[in-house]
Predict the 3D structure of the following.
Amino acid sequence: MKPVKVGICGLGTVGSGTFNVLTRNAAEISRRIGCEIMIAQVGARRDNPDCDTTSTQVTRDIFEVASNPDIDIVVELIGGYEVALKLVLLAIENGKHVVTANKALIAVHGNQIFAAARKHNVTVAFESAVAGGIPIIKALKEGLAANKINNLAGIINGTGNFILSEMQAKGRDFSDVLKEAQALGYAEADPTFDVEGIDAAHKLTILASIAYGIPLQFDKAYTEGISKITAEDIRFADELGYRIKHLGIARRTAQGIELRVHPTMIPKQTLIANVNGVMNAVVVDADAVGQTLYYGAGAGGEATGSAVIADIIDIARNIIGGNTAASPPLGFQAETLSNLPILAMEQTETAYYLHLKAAEKPGVLAAVTKILGQGGINIEAIVQKESDEDYVPVILLTQQVFEFQMNKAILEIEALDCILGDVTRIRVEHL
Amino acid sequence: MKPVKVGICGLGTVGSGTFNVLTRNAAEISRRIGCEIMIAQVGARRDNPDCDTTSTQVTRDIFEVASNPDIDIVVELIGGYEVALKLVLLAIENGKHVVTANKALIAVHGNQIFAAARKHNVTVAFESAVAGGIPIIKALKEGLAANKINNLAGIINGTGNFILSEMQAKGRDFSDVLKEAQALGYAEADPTFDVEGIDAAHKLTILASIAYGIPLQFDKAYTEGISKITAEDIRFADELGYRIKHLGIARRTAQGIELRVHPTMIPKQTLIANVNGVMNAVVVDADAVGQTLYYGAGAGGEATGSAVIADIIDIARNIIGGNTAASPPLGFQAETLSNLPILAMEQTETAYYLHLKAAEKPGVLAAVTKILGQGGINIEAIVQKESDEDYVPVILLTQQVFEFQMNKAILEIEALDCILGDVTRIRVEHL
């Protein structure tokens, strides 16, 4: 059988990981598919010393790859938005299947890309765009295809999880651990994308579209980072039986879809609360199967390359088999995508942890609990903590309420004379 | 598009779960595939009050389903060996695709069934046969298809895991918890299949064949149950930082494949050590992606039905798309299956926990450590425990050695005058 030919654009960490795994495991992969996957061309601005491309055709012009008549599948691993979009659209127009690890591209331009792919009858696959090597997109699109997905929650940014894990394990401060993460290469010099949750929101947007069959709507995702989480809150959470994790959460309600990335307190005995370091995990709750969890490396050249190649293999099998009905990009037929609204953050429902600084005088708790009571917010627990400062830290756990109720109550609490500074709020989920 | 028609044989727990999920989620499933999945016929000896089959054609003769010219996919959910084999082979001869949840059937007769399927150019799928609703077979066959699998280890029998979890959490004895499991319906009146590891060995055999591309060889799996695990050993393990889990383990070595089911001590901070109750989980270690873990319900009608229907959906997509190269049953092309040998248990390598009853006299440790040293077995730790009995419990942890070395050493230790009764041996893995 003649080989399926791929062109790899980009030879950075993921590009070289993909190149090396495809080369090293060529025999094992051929045993699976029944034909060879051949790297027909590599497009990269510069060579990568980790990759031996001496027997591969290399071009400095990635657009040459997208136009190469020899190539069946174009693999976009250059990252970024504009050039990547142009490359992917050109490849599609030229009738090539596309595999990409670019979460930003898919989350922001996915709808446009999928429409082009439909028009030209090619496949676009992006398993590697979410949670690196974990086959979570395949699980949602195919493994759980019998189910209605209720909700999902994921640790889908390794940098953020490394920072929170270190803060948890060693009682260290955010800025301190961030510096270490930067030194280790886990965090960028400008860490905004990771620690402010933008990267996680890209990935969550993709997961939610696949879970519910809705168009990609990155602009409607709520995003809150971890830079304000303190060692003190991590300790207080621990004492209450919780871990703080930076989760991407999607939930189907009667009103629409909740889509939110924020620091979240979860019970410490849950499996996902014990996913530490740079590792990723996604918990899915579905109507037939119940809860399932998927865990693995969320980044790294070969781990992400593993997912890139899984997509290549799926497409190769379809090419060989002449399959004209491969699973669509979001796992749902395009014409059946739903207009279920993404809910504004104010309309989402969750429980809360509140951390107040109370002046040392009588009546503070009475004033606070009155505000919560009038706002229809039930209190699960109140704990006063010791402090060396001239205030008393008060921790409250509430039952589940709408975010708009909590916003109003927090404004009122912050306006009390006996409350110093801002109220810290961390959402609590029991998954 | 015309519907894909399935015939369901067997209307027990999994049959009714499959029927009900297919019916309830028909709209969601059609949105995914682009056509309807129609239950054209049900074959069952008796009705199931959990299933409303009033608008479905029902026959008491399951073989009628396998011969029904209307049906594209026959779903075998009757269990057992002989009748199920006859049914599946008849369906294949009649050109029907087959989906089955029957791990015993696949583990024991899979090679024969797959050969028949190849001859008649139909698909045989069995995601639901291993770990219930967890899409682990899809993960191995497709999600990790870029990888060489090094090893995998799974909690793949819910009954056994429930018993060990209860023993762990409450310090209870095996027989006591088994009775409760039987009362709860988690364990059969004759629990041999579950607690002696036969069910787990069926599932492990299937996983190993998919991981390594080897024929199914159930007869070569080593199987050891949990009925001899005591509350005392669980406590000692806990004190050393371990949990005892009933694992199915497959490992690729230079000499061949280790294939073994036995109680295993694993570090308590690992994720899989924290999988409790009837839940299942599989850890896979692969060369490109590293370690991934898959967790979920290993049994239950709808959870298992979720996996049955995932197989139906995959096959339906191939039918619609005219795919002539669907992924083969084991994920490898039949002609590339490897004759890598399954190693005899004596040739497998692992670390050990040994529990000896030492007479209270001097020189015991010297005699024991001498035997181990002469056998080339390095000791990691020795702990003497308190006891009310007239002997001293001695716990030893060893480094990794071959099983034949340990067998010889244990025989010699048991022959010592100062050692009372049998030596308890539990294998230790760090995964």
Summary: The radius of gyration of chain A is 24 Å. The first strand of chain A starts at residue 4 and ends at 9.
